[in-house]
Amino acid sequence: MKLKPILMFFAAAVLASCSDELESRVEKTLRRMTLEEKIGQMMQITVGVITSPDGTELTPMADTVLSVYKVGSILNVPGGEAATPEAYRSLMRKIQEKSLAATGIPCLYGLDQIHGASYTVGATFFPQEIGLGATFNDEYAYAMGDIMAYETRACNVPWVFSPVMDLGRNPLWPRMWESFGEDVLVNKRMATAEVLGQQGDNPDAVDEYHVGSSLKHYMAYGVPVSGQDRTPSSVTDREMMEKYFQPFKSCVEAGALSIMVNSSINDGIPFHANGKFLTDWVKEGLGWDGFFVTDWADVRNLFERDHIAASNKEAVCIAVNAGIDMIMEPYDVTVCDEIRELVNEGKIKKSRINDAVRRILRAKYRLGLFDDPYGEKGDYGRFACDGFRTAAYNAALESEVLLKNDGGLLPLKKSDRILLVGPNANSMRTLNGGWSYTWQGDLTDDARFTAQYNTIYEALCTKFDNVTWLPVLEYAGGREWQKEEKAEIGRAMIAAAVSDVVVICVGENTYCETPGNITDLNLSEQQKKLVKFMKATGKPVVLVLNEGRPRLVGDIEPLADAIVDILLPGNYGGDALAALLCGEENFSGRLPFTYPKFSGRFSTYDYKLCENRATMAGEYDYNAVMDVQWPFGHGLSYTRFEYSDMRVDRTSFSRGDVINVSVDVKNCGNVAGKESVLLFSSDVYASVTPEVRRLRDYAKVEIEPGRTATVTFALRAEDLAFVGHDLKWHLEEGEFLLSAGNCSVTINCTETEVF
Ligand code: BGC
Q1: Annotated catalytic residue: which of 146, 166, 183, 295?
Q2: Best of 114, 161, 217, 258 to mutate for ligand 1, by most ligand atoms within 8 A of CB?
Q3: Which of 134, 135, 90, 131 is nearest to 114 (CA)?
Q4: β-pairing, 562-565 with 595-596?
Q5: What are the pLDDT digits (tens) for 523-558?
Q6: Is the Cα dihedral 244, 248, 729, 744 positive or negative?
Q7: Of all atoms in ligand 1, which is nearest to the CA of residue 216?
Q8: What is the chain's percent helix, strand, coil content, to nearest 5?
Q9: pLDDT less than 50: residues of the chain
């Protein structure tokens, strides 16, 4: 009986001594460093500055950067495209040798490994985060983090710039697919699971199979008012605290080693200059001892782009004093000179420099870089093994969302004569999206990268006897991702005459960040035209959407008998789709965002009551209509689930209580299926206008036909609170409605509390 406390005491003592030892190593290193060496640790340069164009050799600039300026961190994919683990290892050795010779401090190399080790040839690619959001299954976020970490360490790279936990709440935003969707809880839980997968169990001593995470982009990056990348958001502190901050807070509490800052501006203040958000909320508010890294050139942007500083030097002063620890100034090491001048002029205190460097050194010790700079401890024999492949394939299966299936058109019969058309039908590029082998994902179809994987066409051929693919409308290729070849629809119409069903794969080609900006969310005109003409043949139409954000399909939706949104499912997405379309597997994905219907009407599921209301009585007869294409959480299956008997173990509660909420879910169909059970709450009356509903928990259960599963959620009363204008949490007395499926139950909070 006494064993547990003793073990806990022992574990706490080990952790304490481990962190004492860590701190004393950090202090010892810091004490022997010159000011120049310290400043060098605060700098990060892009690898292209110090390498040959193919990224294999160091150039003389490496001496300037690593030996003269003693820069402590390098980022980016060498040579501009994915490299093999061996190529990375060889380059990492050269960089480490130089760094160690210059300062005795190893370099911290960071890579954008986004949906797996996505800058590594041969690595295991999962669906992009938007697809993981659609699984509503945190296990895949953990698995992706874990496998990404392993395959990144195989390259002797210890640090990744992921996960993204910005809430994708403006569907125009070109990085929507990099998020887990629009909801706070989904982003929070999945990002935290991914961080735990990446960093392993002990963030103080990350082992040779795990990496450091860089949470990004702190914060509210996914709600640019204009919808364009890196443009201002307009979020109050109250909402910031209640929604956008929460995933970061949770990941910091899980031990995340670093955070990358949002490139943009909120309420007139660039995030890189916002001491309140950086220092007060995170470093002090959460007692965080990790470090902040800027996004690309974002200190310079304070001067050149945002005009809050009249020189780059002033920009550096503002950012470092706001709490920035490491500056991703990709090309120009002379920023180091500016920092030195600022210190000598007393504009940046030495204590701030020491604090920043301490944080960076701490991460380097935590990642084991001082003990194993060449990455010789690990054995990476499981790189891209079958187990990893299966995890990525299963994630893809659960990420593809069946939006419509009129008349039970799906599953298709093995013998059906399938005509396959559309620009996304035979492309590995579009299955993966950006951050795949290259930044823009434009070389993915190169045989060096994806010869071993199946496009949708190739995958359908493995499951169906009679598949004809006609390239009648293709993307032009290259980086002009929106450009399409001229459509030859007549050919497809003739072929449709001898087919049983037409599968049309449409959506988007790949893009990343600002090049992905669009001004119209509609699917391209030519793609819509293809769907219209195919429908005119009279054959049943299956529409496959392969996209990073919800391109509008309102006018062609009625023409499709079945619609599947596969989002960006990764290298196994074609295989997953084929298995789902033939009925070998069942759909279980659900939309992690609200799919809009109109270009002038965007919303999220947690809107305010005034956005959807019946006509008011009287002269003005106001009303408001919430009309979306598909709501958040929508997703069909080959079976049908019925919800019943929703119940709670207490109907009244106050802060500190846990309410156990149960609901029975029955599989009423003939095939097994997985169901994402989503628990929502509605605060019926509140002093800050309540949202119609908020997701409070979710669980994924597999249920055999005819069987019933009871799903129980332990809902903390505190989770029903909101942030007030005093930036405190308020749990107010009164009624709350809990709902799951078509069931609901009312509970009552007996006491208002502010905490
Ligand atoms: C992106 C970041 C990325 C960084 C480094 C920036 O342009 O916004 O997400 O991590 O580049 O490549």
Answers
A1: 295
A2: 161
A3: 131
A4: unpaired
A5: 999 999 999 999 999 999 999 999 999 999 999 999
A6: positive
A7: 9
A8: 35, 20, 45
A9: 1-4, 7
* pLDDT value at residue 1: 39
Ligand 1 lined by 216 (C-beta under 6 Å) = yes
The C-alpha atoms of residue 12 and residue 678 are separated, in whole angstroms, by: 36
Helix axes 350-366, 3-31, angle to 10 degrees: 130
Amino acid of residue 451 = A
Does the beta carbon of 565 lie inside 6 Å of ligand 1?
Answer: no
Residue 249 is encoded by which pair of tokens?
């807070």
Which residues fall within 8 angstroms of residue 203, CB to CB, at 6 or more apart? 254, 255, 256, 257, 366
Structure tokens at 392: 């990525």
- Collect all residues with Cβ–Cβ distance below 8 Å to 315 and sequence separation of at least 6: 299, 300, 301, 302, 303, 308, 309
Q: What is the CA radius of gyration of the chain?
A: 26
Distance CA 169, CA 166 (A): 9
What is the pTM assigned to this prediction? 0.96
Task: Please choose from 260, 264, 326 the residue to mutate so as to test ligand 1's pocket, defined by most ligand atoms within 8 A of CB.
Answer: 260
Closest CA to ligand 1's atom 8: 295
| Distance from the alpha carbon of residue 217 to the mean position of ligand 1, in angstroms | 9
Among 505, 542, 555, smallest CA distance to 407 is for 542
Residue with CA nearest ligand 1 atom 11: 296
Q: Are the C-beta atoms of residues 33 and 63 closer than 8 Å to each other?
A: no
Asked if residue 515 has its Cβ within 6 Å of ligand 1, the reply is no
Whose Cα sits closest to atom 2 in ligand 1? 295
Tokens of 465: 């006897």
Phi, psi angle pair for 231, to nearest 5°: -120, 160
For residue 634, the surrounding DSSP H or E stretch is none
**Residue 330 CB–ligand 1 contact under 6 Å:** no
Residue having the nearest C-alpha atom to atom 6 of ligand 1: 296
Q: Known catalytic residue: 295?
A: yes
Task: Find out whether the beta carbon of 547 lies less than 6 Å from any atom of ligand 1.
Answer: no
Answer whether 102's CB lies under 8 Å from 70's CB: yes
For position 167, what pLDDT does the model report? 98
242 touches ligand 1 (CB under 6 Å): no
161 lines ligand 1 (CB under 6 A): yes
Does residue 295's CB lie within 6 angstroms of at least one atom of ligand 1?
yes
- Please give the mean pLDDT across all residues of the chain: 96
Q: What confidence score (pLDDT) does residue 15 get? A: 53
| pLDDT at position 268 | 97
The pLDDT of residue 618: 85
Q: How far is CA 580 from CA 136, 404, 500, 588, 595, in A?
A: 18, 14, 18, 10, 22
